[in-house]
Amino acid sequence: MSSWVSRSVSSLRKFRWVSQNRMREAQLGSHTLRSHGITLARTHMHDWLILMLLVVIDVILNVIHPFYRFVGKDMMADLKYPLKSNTVPLWAVPVYAVLLPMAIFLLFYLRRRDVYDLHHAILGILFSVLVTAVITDAIKDAVGRPRPDFFWRCFPDGKDVYDQLGNVICHGRKSVIREGHKSFPRSFAGLGFLSLYLSGKIKVFDRRGHVAKLCIVVLPLLVASLVGISRVDDYRHHWQDVFAGGLIGLIVATICYLQFFPPPYHAEGWGPYAYFQVLEQSLATAQAPDAVNTRNAEAVEAPAENQQDARNNNAFMGISLSGGSSATVEDVESGRR
User: Fold this and answer.
1) 146 with 181: CB under 8 angstroms?
2) How far apart (Å, rounded) are the C-alpha atoms in residues 36 and 106?
3) Which residues, other chains included, contact 87 with Cβ-Cβ below 8 Å and sequence gap of 6+?
4) Are the C-beta atoms of 245 and 188 separated by less than 8 Å?
C-alpha cells in the first residue's frame, strides 16, 4: 500500500514539474525592451559603433570629388537628355527605404513583444542600407560615369566647349557637375531586406500552397523597381546603373539578413537566431532544478520501497516459521502417543 502511495506522489510531482516547465516555456516568448533591452544593447555595442563608422565613411564619399572621366564630343549623343527634377524626391528615399520598414518591425514587436526581433531587424536593415551605400558611393567615385543629363549639367547654356584633346570644359555649377559624374550604380537595399523579413514572418515557404502570400513579399521589390525605373525616366541614371545597383543591394541585404535570421524557407525562419538561443538557455536553466528534485525524490522513494520489501520478506518468513513450528509440535505429540 505504501509503495503505491509513494509512486502516486512521485507521478504527481513529475506532472507538476512538467506543467511548470510548459508554463515557463510559454512565458519565454516575451522579451521586452524593459527586460532585455539594456543587455541586448551592451552585447551589440560594437555593431552600433561600426554602424556609425559607416555613416562617417559614406559622408566622406559623398563630399569628395569623383573621378572626372574623359567625355568627348562624340560621346555627348547619349548624354544630352534634359535635366529634370526627380519624380521621387531625395527626402523620400530614407522614408520608404528605412523608416517604413522600421514601422513594420515595430508592429511585429507590439504583437509578439520580442525585443530581439525588433533590435536585429533594425540593425540588419541599417547595415544593409549603409554597407550598400558605402559600396555604391565608392564605385561611383571610382568610375565617375556621366549621367544621361551630363551635357546640360556641364553646359547650362547649351554651348559646348572642348580642350585640345577633345575633353569637355564645363562652365556649369561645380556641385551640379560633380553630381553629374555619379551615375553608376544605383541600389535599393532597404526594401529588399523588408521583403526577406516579411517572407520569414508570414512563412511564405511553408509548403502549404498559399501563393497569395507572395503578393505581400513581392510588393516591396515592386516599389524598389518602380523607383529605379523613375530614375531612368528622369534621366538621372542609365538602365545599367539601376540593374547593377539592384543586384548589389539584394546581395548585401540577403547577407545582412542571414546574419540575424534563419533563411525564410527554414522552419524557424519567423524568428531571429538570438531568440531561439535565449529560449534554449532559459529552458536548460529551468530544467536543471527539476532534474535535481527528481533525483532527490527518487533517493527518498528508494529507502521507502526497501523498507516495504523488508517488511514483506519478514512477514513471509514469519508465516514460514509459524508453519514449521506447528509441524514440529504435531510430530512430538504423535511420538508421545
Assistant:
1) yes
2) 16
3) 230, 233, 234
4) yes
Nearest to 274 by CA among 49, 127, 38, 114: 114
Q: What residue type is 57 in one-letter code?
A: I
Report residue 322 CA to chain centroid gap. Answer: 79
Residue identified by cell 524598389 is: 224
Q: What is the pLDDT of residue 21?
A: 44
pLDDT in tens, 30-61: 678 777 778 888 889 999 999 999 999 999 99
Give backbone dihedrals phi and psi of 162, rounded to 5 degrees, phi first: -135, 155
Q: Of 312 and 252, which is predicted with more confidence?
A: 252
End-to-end CA distance of the chain: 46
In sequence order, what are the beta bridge partners of 162? 168
**Residue among 185, 187, 188, 177 nearest 79 (CA):** 177
pTM of the model: 0.76
239, containing H or E segment:
helix 239-260
